[in-house]
UniProtKB/TrEMBL annotation:
One of its GO terms (molecular function) is oxidoreductase activity, acting on the CH-OH group of donors, NAD or NADP as acceptor. Pfam families: Mannitol_dh, Mannitol_dh_C. The keyword Endoplasmic reticulum does not apply. It comes from Acetobacter estunensis. GO terms for biological process: mannitol metabolic process. This is Mannitol dehydrogenase family protein.
């Protein structure tokens, strides 16, 4: 197997698609925080295609690592050794695949070297977009849309001379740019949140206000925060995946990623300092992303959650295996077509029936084999975005929300041992509090429905929903998910 670096690019196996542009000519114009699998399978792949177009060499990516830990150490080492190159394998449902050696990330700056270096990199006038994948729960914006200034992570960062959170790093860089007369950059959220640009604005400007009111006002005026809908299934990567991907590519890559062949990115066209010609490589630009986000979050992501919690309890671990279960497939299909679809206001070019069919087909892709535990993790940040609006609307309209009560019961059951290391089901959630744990381990269903995660859903107050939830929770313990599901589907 051939190791991956600039020097070996020309010698990689023939079927590995290589950068068709000169990497030496590329300069970073985008800085990305959160260079995980999703970013590398999605945005980095779009930018790879842009760099192949004439006149786009100023839009390379510099990856920024802002978290300490073993993962960051490994990533820094892989980026160093491989000249920031990595492979992406795209698997189509029919078994065909495309392997790319991606060169669009041209530099990597890690906080392990020092946070000052990360901030300094962002003061470079050539950086005109700072994009982010910091997870749904990473914005510190509460259910009422307020930035949580009193959260310990944020409060501590506000006292630091050299900040360490995304908010501190970006606002410090903007402060320096402003003082030096360098213009602002666009802050582009790529996380699965409804109106993610607005959430990002609340968070970053909220942090800036607390440090320096003038800076906050300047940011509100000058910095743009476009909303964006991002979509591509990119599973977690373990040691066995690295081995398999490398065997298949013939490249000894320390950090390969893989994904489905489907990809979508819809962005609000609001960039204060220019942008790459992404429209030429399939990215949709529009003035209103909200309807696209709504369809994606409430259909694809919510279907994922629905499948994951019930699927895990039924003994499945992979998405393609779970969706092959007749009961689970019916649950997801009915949930999408009968519960969610009638509540949506989709964009003119989206047919929700076709969308639902596509979601199911994407889940069936056997080569992707996405992990239910990945999807089930982080539920406290995901459920209010993916499922909350649907449940709230169903209850307001007096409609049947049995399937959603079942999913919440399955969630609660999977989360009995959340963040545990011994259980059968390994789900993690950084946001779980002692209050959450106590309710999840207890036997009072009302205590669970009254948790902060469900604030505003109306679930605790709705007698029918609460009854369903209580009876499903009991049933899951007594007779198991398969049997309870059969009852849910019968109606
Ligand atoms: C998943 C997403 O984490 C989840 O809950 O639903 O990561 C999903 O795979 C992506 O949003 C697909 O675009």
């Amino acid at each position: 197997m051939i190791p991956l670096s600039n020097a070996t690019l020309d010698h990689l196996p023939q079927d590995v698609l290589k950068p068709s542009y000169s990497r030496a000519d590329v300069r970073p114009g985008i800085a990305h925080i959160g260079v995980g699998n999703f970013h590398r399978a999605h945005q980095a792949h779009y930018v790879e295609q842009v760099l192949a177009l004439p006149g786009q060499a100023e839009w390379g990516i510099v990856g920024l690592g802002i978290r300490h830990g073993r993962r960051e150490e490994e990533r820094r080492e892989a980026f160093r050794k491989q000249d920031s190159l990595f492979t992406l394998t795209e698997f189509a449902s029919d078994g065909t695949k495309a392997i790319h050696a991606i060169g669009s990330i041209v530099e990597y700056v890690s906080c392990l070297d020092e946070y000052e270096g990360v901030i300094h990199r962002l003061t470079d006038p050539a950086i005109r977009i700072v994009s982010l994948t910091i997870t749904e729960g990473g914005y510190y914006v509460d259910g009422q849309g307020r930035f949580q200034l009193d959260h310990p992570d944020i409060a501590e960062d506000l006292t630091r001379d050299v900040p360490q959170t995304a908010f501190g790093i970006v606002t410090e860089a903007l402060k320096r740019r402003r003082a030096a007369g360098v213009g602002p950059f666009t802050v582009l959220s790529c996380d699965n949140l409804q109106e993610n640009g607005k959430v990002a604005r609340t968070a970053f400007c909220g942090f800036a206000d607390a440090r320096d009111a003038e800076l906050g006002a300047w940011m509100r005026e000058k910095v743009t925060f476009p909303c964006a809908m991002v979509d591509r299934i990119a599973p977690s990567i373990g040691a066995a995946d690295i081995e398999r991907l490398d065997r298949e590519s013939g490249v000894a890559d320390m950090m390969p990623v893989y994904s489905e062949d489907f990809t979508q990115w819809v962005i609000e066209n609001s960039f204060c300092a220019g942008r790459p010609a992404l429209e030429k490589v399939g990215v949709q630009f529009t003035s209103d992303v909200a309807p696209y986000e709504q369809v994606k979050l409430r259909m694809l992501n919510a279907a994922h959650s629905t499948l994951a919690y019930a699927g895990l309890l039924m003994g499945y671990r992979r998405v393609d295996k779970a969706i092959a279960d007749e009961g689970l497939a019916t649950l997801v299909e009915t949930f999408l077509n009968e519960d969610v679809a009638p509540l949506l206001t989709p964009p003119a070019d989206v047919n929700v029936t076709d969308y639902a069919r596509l979601v199911l087909n994407r889940f069936r892709n056997p080569e992707v084999g996405d992990q239910l535990e990945r999807i089930a993790s982080g539920g406290l940040a995901k459920l209010p975005v993916f499922l909350g609006p649907t449940v709230k609307q169903l209850l307001e309209k007096g409609r049947d929300a049995r399937r959603e009560a079942f999913t919440l019961a399955c969630w609660a059951e999977c989360y009995r041992d959340v963040n545990g290391t011994t259980g059968d089901i390994r789900v993690s959630d950084p946001q779980v509090t002692e209050q959450d744990k106590a309710a999840l381990q207890g036997e009072d269903p009302q205590a669970i429905l009254g948790l902060p995660v469900f604030a505003g859903w109306g679930v605790a107050e709705n007698a029918t929903f609460a009854e369903h939830f209580a009876s499903f929770r009991k049933g899951l313990k007594k007779s198991g998910a398969k049997e309870v599901l059969a009852g849910v589907l019968k109606g």
